[in-house]
Every structure is written in C-alpha cells, then in structure tokens.
Amino acid sequence: MPIFGMLQRGGEVVIRMLANVQQVTIEPLIERTIAKWTLIYTDEYDIYSRLTDWGYDHETVCHAAGEYARDGFCEVHVNTLEGSWSLLRSWLRPHRGIPQESLPLYLGFFEFSHNVRARGKRLLGSLIGLLLAPPRNPS
Questions:
Q1: Are 105 and 97 in contact (CB under 8 A)?
Q2: Which of 13, 77, 98, 123 could pair with 69 in a Cys bridge, judged by C-beta atoms 3.0 to 4.6 Å apart?
Q3: Averaged pLDDT for residues 62-66
C-alpha cells in the first residue's frame, strides 16, 4: 500500500496509507485536511493536476526537468515534505521488516511525534491525552 503525505510548512504533517495513489483516492483526504483556496506546492506528478478544479491554488516544481525550487516572490519547492520523508525512512530503518498491518501504527506515532515536537516536555501529557481520548473513526 502506498503512503501519502501532506505537510504545512512550519506546521503539522499528515501521513496515511492508501489503497492506491489516484485522484479519486487523494481528493477526499485533501478536502478533509486542507482549507479551500490554500496554495499547495507539489511536484509534477499527474495526480495533482486537478487541484485547481478542486478549489485550491497550485504551484509545481518539475523534478524531471531538473527543477527543485523556483525563486520569486514566494519560493516554490517541496523540500519540506521530502525532508520529512527522509526523517521517516531514517526512523523506520532500525525497525526492519515491519509487518504491513503494523505500519499504520508506526506512521501514526511518527506523525504524532512530528506534530507535537514544539511541545517539548509536554509531549508525555499529549500522548496520555490521546490515549485516554475516545476512539476516532480511522480514515
């Protein structure tokens, strides 16, 4: 199963395992996670081609043409998310051979740890709060 991620620069990451990475699969996740008319930066992968049709502003970089960042009034790049993928791979490396059914738990913990990193010592309280919270509907 492919892993799909979104990251707000300086903000939170969302990581999900999906049955496939197609527009019909990612559209509901994007709509639940990102406010309409938000400017979204992506690479040139075709699944993102309908973002403007879905109500988002969209800028791309074309890795196939050797473009990794574009400077201007607002720099366009996807380095922030790619850096998170690198951190995730490094974090998973010592856990070789994670069973497919356990991977969502590892991804969830990585997502949680990333999103509460600014809380520092309050991390334990946040974790306990989540453990005591009522179960949420997985999506």
A1: no
A2: 77
A3: 84
